[in-house]
Write a structure and sequence with these properties.
- By secondary structure, this protein is mainly α.
- It folds into 2 domains: 90 residues, Rna Polymerase Sigma Factor, Chain: A (Orthogonal Bundle), CATH 1.10.1740; 72 residues, Arc Repressor Mutant, subunit A.
- It is 70% helix and 0% strand.
- α1 packs across α2, α2 crosses α4 and α6 packs across α8.
- It starts with 9 loop residues before the first helix and ends in a 9-residue tail after the last helix.
Length: 186
């Protein structure tokens, strides 16, 4: 029996998963994995990281779809990529915190830590984005506030609108610091 190619409608995916789970998940994995792999490698990860992320995302998708707790507003690949990006960002930050601990300097040698200077430089760039962008990025990345809260606070009609604005602000920041080397932020 041929599995139908579902559209973005969640009920179509639910039927496909209930009809032939293995084939549907295999197809989804094959379609989405190259995008996840590309993203993870661009952001300091490995193939194994990408595989783990996508498998976790597919479990979330499967459970929510079968339990009828998901309403898709985009393609499944987009939904899975969103999960993977969020999880990878958290994992990457966690790894950086772990490896960010540096050994104590040898006795008698004192060097001014460069991290304070680099973070001040970064904050200068953040300041140049304007109040709204600065507040939004600081709220998300420093205070870890949820997009639902921020959408309400800043008067966005939907969470998606707030997310798009955050992305635009982040892209402006990336463009502004693109000329700096990563060594300046260690």
């Amino acid at each position: 029996m041929e599995v139908m190619e579902p559209t973005a409608a969640t009920t179509d995916w639910r039927v496909a998963l209930l009809t032939d789970r293995e084939k549907t998940l295999t197809r989804l994995y094959a379609r989405t994995y190259p995008m996840v792999l590309h993203y993870v490698k661009q952001h300091g990860g490995t193939e194994e990281d990408a595989q783990d992320l996508l498998q976790d995302a597919m479990i979330v998708f499967y459970e929510k779809t079968v339990l009828d707790q998901l309403t898709l507003t985009a393609s499944v690949s987009t939904y899975l990529m969103g999960i993977c990006k969020n999880r990878w960002r958290r994992e990457f930050e966690k790894r950086n915190r772990r490896t960010g601990l540096q050994p104590e300097p040898e006795e008698g040698i004192w060097e001014e830590p460069e991290t304070e200077q680099a973070s001040l430089k970064l904050m200068d760039y953040v300041e140049q984005l304007g109040e709204r962008c600065k507040d939004l990025l600081v709220s998300v990345y420093y205070f870890g506030q949820r997009m639902e809260e921020l959408a309400e606070r800043y008067g966005y009609r939907t969470v998606h609108s707030a997310t798009v604005q955050k992305y635009k602000c982040l892209e402006r920041l990336r463009k502004a610091v693109s000329h700096l080397s990563i060594g300046q932020f260690k």
